[in-house]
Amino acid sequence: MATSYVYKRDATRLFIAMRDNGDRYKIYLPKESKPIINGEEKDVFFIEHKNNFSSFSMNDVMYRCEITQRDQHRIMVKVNGVEYKFSIESIFSYLRRNLLNKGVEVHADNNIKSPMPGKIVDVFVSEGDLVNKGEPVLRLEAMKMQNEINACCNGVIRKIHVVPGQSIIQDELLVEITSIDE
Amino acid sequence: MSKKILIANRGEIAIRIIRSAKKLGLTTYVIQGNREPDAMYLEYADEIISIRENLSDKIIFLNSEEIIGLALEHQIDMIHPGYGFLSENPDFATLCEQNGITFIGPSSDLIRNMGIKTIAKEMAAKAEMPLVPGSAGAITDASVAKKFADKIGYPVILKASAGGGGRGMRIVEKPETMERHFKSAYDEAVAAFGNGDIFIEKYLTNPKHLEFQILGDKYGHVIHLGERECSLQRKHQKLIEEAPSASIDTKTREQMGKLAVKFAQAIGYYSAGTIEFILDEDGSYYFMEMNTRIQVEHPVTEMITGADLIEWQIRVALGEKLKLKQKDIKFKGWAIECRVNTEDPQNRFTPQTGFIERVFFPHGDHIRVETGVKDFSVVTPYFDSMIAKIIVHGENRDDCIAKTLSALKEFSISGLKTTVPFCRTVLRSKEFREATYTTHWVDSVFTTDMLESEDEAMMAALAATITYAKEYLQYSSDSPMFKSESLNVWVLNKRINK
Fold first, then answer.
1. Which CATH number fits domain A105-179: 2.40.50.100, 3.60.15.10, 2.20.28.90, 3.40.50.300?
2. Which of A35, A73, A82 sits opposite B346 (nearest CB)?
3. pLDDT > 50? residue B210
4. Do B194 and B213 share a domain, yes or no?
5. B466 part of contact set with chain A, CB < 8 Å
6. Taking CB atoms and an 8 Å limit, are B467 and A58 in contact across chains?
7. Nearest by CB: B468 against A73, A99, A127
8. Is B52 a catalytic residue?
9. What does the pLDDT look like over B76-133, one tens digit per residue?
10. Does residue B212 share a domain with residue B197?
């Protein structure tokens, strides 16, 4: 029986904000906890959000953000009098677009293979989950030792080839991840 | 019966003048035109003179005859022109004099003389003011120009005597290029003005702009109230001013102050005035010009001296003696003024016009705000873009910079963009902190990404994402297509696998 999905994240809550100067922000908006920006949980408090204003505090500094222009996914925000332009995408449209641009070999190196023969004890994720690089995706027992196998990149779990209890050999394909890194 | 004063101006300076005038018990009059019928300054005056004007008419504040007509109609005793508009128009001052109205400022002759640069410089030379080394008369030959430049040192600037707008102007860095530049300046001057007279002057590569505040009465008593540094400029428009200046020491300050007073006395100056100097990197300074009006940046001087310059302008105009003596003028602490213009510093300072939805100014003991706008004010295209000045006093320069930065942080406005982020960037810059900035700072150091901050950009990204996500997530939970997350991912995976 698999343990609860500690790391399970809802991929519909991941967005890519691309600034006009090319800076990219991967922003995950959890239902209750703090936002994760570029893989890092930020100490952001949400103060209010009404009309065109959102106010946050981060590290005890207040940021009052005003949406000054909105054209579908293109959004302009003014903070302390300075404007920043973004185009926002959901992770799905982002991946689709990347896929169309890059062709099929997008995920060539993003597969997790078993480093040793053993038995799968636990799978922490399910297909479609979002993972950060270095986060454990499954637990493998080998030589009476339990090892956590970590995600090789930031991305969405595309396919899981194993189930708990399954015996595996070395280099067997365990999990495929669609990378959302550059 | 109290005297009637007409303020022939608008915006923050009209309100500022009203404040001092009321202190002196005067009845204040302002003019309401069609261009800004709901302007904030109108609320502060005792009386409003409404005029009917077409938008094609000349702006009322520039129309001498009409203002004099209105003044006579309302039995106005004195007119304060503020700055800009008619404040340095000698003909307007003459009209006031002819119609028995007191013009608050110096005599029309003084305004006229100081307005003509060559005459002002001649008078300055007579008063032994240092002038930028240059040729006394026109030079017509490149070899003479070269000899002269060798004497005063390179770089030099060649100026067409009939010139203007940069035409017929050349900067010569070294002797070898003199002949070439001289010829092109000459040709350009002949082509543009039909006059090939060329002057030659020492060119200051990295100058600072300093000015001394002068106050004098009609009986020959003149004092100075120290200097202001106004080197932070863009296209000759000042954006930040400070008093005193960190670029000169006490000894130089005394010297320059004495020179300024001596010059003002020599020309018989009265009222408030400003003597502008240009300061070279090697510490030498030269007279530039004299302004015969109250200046936008006068509050920094008031903050460190405690004097009310506009009150004194009015008192002197009424014929009172200037009671302040030079020894009464003590400088206390430091003051910085930031101009709040509705211009977009991210986009080449393009002026912004429109509706101010909400504006919030900083408050505090050491903060002074002069403004002509409030919530729901409209910034029209008819007048200049300065809507406010934020002036902050500190114990010393560092303290003042820190206090100004926190005051600017409190400022907020929605609807229009302003120069406030630019001012913040300046105050944080190394050059400003070390007081090494010159008039070239905006052109040579400033870039728009200096306005940005990593954390602000990240919070902006978060705000934009939340705005987008609110609709997107609602859409994904409402629409049956997106009801099941796995379906959503399944569609995606299928495409990826294809």
1. 2.40.50.100
2. A82
3. yes
4. no
5. yes
6. no
7. A73
8. no
9. 999 999 999 999 999 999 999 999 999 999 999 999 999 888 889 899 999 999 999 9
10. no
Domain limit, last residue, from B54, B80, B104: B104
CATH of the domain at B11: 3.40.50.20
Complex prediction ipTM: 0.81
CATH of the domain at B356: 3.30.470.20
Asked if A54's CB is within 8 angstroms of B467's CB, the reply is: yes
Inside any domain, residue B382 = yes
Residues B187 and B222 reside in one and the same domain: no
Predicted local distance difference test score (pLDDT) of residue B261? 97
B451 contact A CB<8A = yes
Chain B residue at shortest CA distance from A99: B496
Structural domain contains residue B341: yes
Instruction: Give me the number of domains chain B comprises.
Output: 4
Domain boundaries along the sequence of chain A: 11-102, 105-179
Distance (Å, rounded) from C-alpha B207 to C-alpha B283? 10
High-pLDDT (> 90) share of chain B, %: 76
Single out the catalytic residue among B10, B293, B397, B424.
B293
The pLDDT, as a whole number, for residue A2 is: 39
Hey, is the C-beta of A66 within 8 angstroms of any chain B C-beta? yes
CATH no. of A11-102: 3.30.700.30
User: Rounded distance, CA B162 to CA B139, Å?
Assistant: 13
Question: What is the rounded CA–CA span in Å between residue B153 and residue B458?
Answer: 52
Q: What is the pLDDT of residues A82-104, one digit of tens each?
A: 999 999 998 888 877 776 765 54
Report the C-alpha gap between B211 and A168 in whole angstroms.
83
Q: Are residues B168 and B224 in the same domain?
A: no
CA distance B486 to chain A (A): 7
In a domain, B467, yes or no: yes
With CA atoms as reference, the chain A residue closest to B453 would be A82
Output the pTM of the full model: 0.83
Check B496 against A25: CB less than 8 A apart.
no
- Residue A93 burial by CB count (10 A; 0-12/13-18/19+): exposed, middle or buried? middle
Residue B303 — very low, low, confident or very high, per pLDDT cuts 50/70/90?
A: very high
Residues of chain B neighbouring A23 (CB-CB closer than 8 A):
457
Which residues touch A137 (CB under 8 Å, ≥6 apart)? A7, A112, A123, A124, A125, A131, A149, A150, A151, A157, A174, A175
Q: Give the per-residue pLDDT at A1.
A: 38
What is the span of the domain harbouring residue B488?
A: 457-497
Shared domain check, B275 and B181: no
* Residue pLDDT, tens place only, B337-390: 999 999 999 999 999 999 999 999 999 999 999 999 999 999 999 999 999 999
Q: Does B348 touch chain A (CB under 8 A)?
A: no
Beta-carbon separation of A25 and B489 below 8 A: no
